[in-house]
Every structure is written in structure tokens, then in C-alpha cells.
Design brief:
globular; mainly alpha; membrane; 0% strand
Length: 261
């Protein structure tokens, strides 16, 4: 699996999608700092009231959350990134080289899942660094969280984002379609699928209350809390890890059966 991870790393190194994701994500994380600077230095902008609740001593978790987690921004962007990367493997025929070794199909699926988690963690750290540095350069001094709070928030964000991305990779492996991958990435990452399912479950007569409420505190709700700077309860780990585990099993199953010709 390590050699497969290295092969994917070599492939990603020359990917324009990788560069585009990094540049767009860094720019979007910088918007928060730009708005804060304008709030402090441009009178007419301050009068618009665009920047609300950002002041010295505001929790950094709140600033980070509003910068790149709120609105499911990171979840959507990262799922789109992984969908594009996975579909490129098919478009360029690179996937045929990766699956030549024994067990190559399963290893490819597992490596893509590992890259989902790894790149989600790196993106989260990058978002934290860009937002925190930019906000301080803009003239605001947020209150840094304790190490325990930071680790909880960071791990929960990474796991929730990874769960959506692994589901998206599974869909792309199944369809081999970049367009389908993008649509699924946006639908899943934005919580649209969860909201539709929640609505359907709430309107099925005779359904057990436990089944009706099963999505009320799922990943979209967790991301909403994390985007506001709050830390989710420990059940968030169970939900996200279970989703990643199930989606990983589906990825392996699809990769073993799907024709990559």
C-alpha cells in the first residue's frame, strides 16, 4: 500500500487540480483576514456590518470555523478535489498502471481513502494557519484554544470532511464520471443528501422515531457546529469513523468488480 501511496503522490505532484485546489483554498481562507482588515481600516466597509463578532479575544475556533468550515465549504471543496483526482486516473489511463500488481484494485481503493484522510487533515491545518496568521496581521488577536480543544476540533473536522470525500471517491469509482463525481461531491458535501433523506424519513407514516431521527445529528449537523467554533460530542467520532469504514468497504468492493478499461 505504501508503494501505491507513493505512486499517487507522484501523480498528484503534477496535477493541475492539486495546484488549483491549494490556490483557491488559500485565497478563500484569506478572505476572512481581508474582511477584518477592511473592517478596521475602511470606514465605509465597517458601516456595512459585514464583519460581525470578530474582535480581540474572540475564540480562534470561531474564526477558523467561519473562515473555511461554515457552509460546508471545506467539505464540498475537498470532495470536489478528490472527485476530480479520482476521475483523472480514468481519463488519463493512469489507473491501468496502478492496478497491475497483485491486489492492486483493493490497494488502489485503500490508498485513495488514505489520501482522503491525509489531504483533509493537511487542508484543515492549512486553513487554520492561513486564517490565524491573516487575522492577526489584519489587526485582530483571537484567543487560541487549549491543545485539547484544538485537537478535538481538528480531528472532528478532518473526519467529517474525510467521510464525505470517501463517499465521493466510491461514487467516482462506480461511475468513472467526473461530472457525476462533482454533482455527488456538492450534494454530499453541502448536506443536501442528508437533508432530503431527513425530510423523507420524517414523512413516512409508521416509521420508528429512532429511524426518523437518525440523521438529525449526523455529519451535516456536526459540520454546522464545528463551523460555529463549537466542539461536537464524542458520538461525532463514532458517526464519522463508521461512515468512513462503510464507505471504504464499498470502495474496495467496487474497485474489485468494476472494469477499469
Amino acid at each position: 500500500m505504501l508503494s501505491m501511496m507513493k505512486a499517487l503522490a507522484y501523480y498528484l505532484r503534477g496535477s493541475r487540480m492539486m495546484l488549483a485546489f491549494v490556490l483557491v483554498f488559500v485565497f478563500c481562507c484569506s478572505v476572512e483576514a481581508i474582511a477584518v482588515w477592511m473592517h478596521f481600516n475602511v470606514p465605509w466597509f465597517a458601516e456595512l456590518g459585514v464583519v460581525v463578532g470578530v474582535y480581540d479575544g474572540v475564540p480562534s475556533l470561531m474564526v477558523w470555523g467561519s473562515s473555511f468550515v461554515a457552509g460546508s465549504f471545506l467539505a464540498m471543496a475537498h470532495a470536489i478535489f478528490m472527485a476530480a483526482i479520482t476521475s483523472e486516473l480514468f481519463k488519463r489511463g493512469y489507473v491501468k498502471n496502478l492496478i497491475q500488481a497483485k491486489g492492486g484494485r483493493a490497494t488502489l481503493a485503500l490508498s485513495l481513502v488514505a489520501w482522503c484522510v491525509l489531504s483533509a487533515s493537511v487542508a484543515t491545518l492549512m486553513g487554520v494557519a492561513v486564517t490565524e496568521l491573516g487575522t492577526r496581521l489584519a489587526g485582530c488577536a483571537p484567543a487560541l484554544p487549549s491543545l485539547a480543544d484544538f485537537l478535538q476540533w481538528f480531528i472532528q473536522v478532518t473526519l467529517c470532511v474525510s467521510a464525505y470525500s470517501v463517499l465521493t471517491v466510491m461514487a467516482v469509482l462506480l461511475t468513472k464520471s467526473e461530472v457525476a463525481g462533482m454533482v455527488i461531491a456538492i450534494s454530499l458535501g453541502a448536506g443536501g443528501v442528508e437533508n432530503i433523506l431527513r425530510l423523507l424519513l420524517a414523512n413516512i407514516p409508521g416509521l420508528a422515531p429512532a429511524l426518523r431521527d437518525c440523521l438529525d445529528g449526523y455529519l451535516a449537523a456536526d459540520l454546522s457546529m464545528l463551523g460555529s467554533g463549537a466542539i461536537c460530542d464524542p458520538f461525532s467520532y463514532v458517526q464519522s469513523i463508521a461512515t468512513i469504514a462503510v464507505a471504504t468497504a464499498l470502495c474496495v468492493a467496487v474497485a474489485k468488480k468494476r472494469s477499469f478499461a
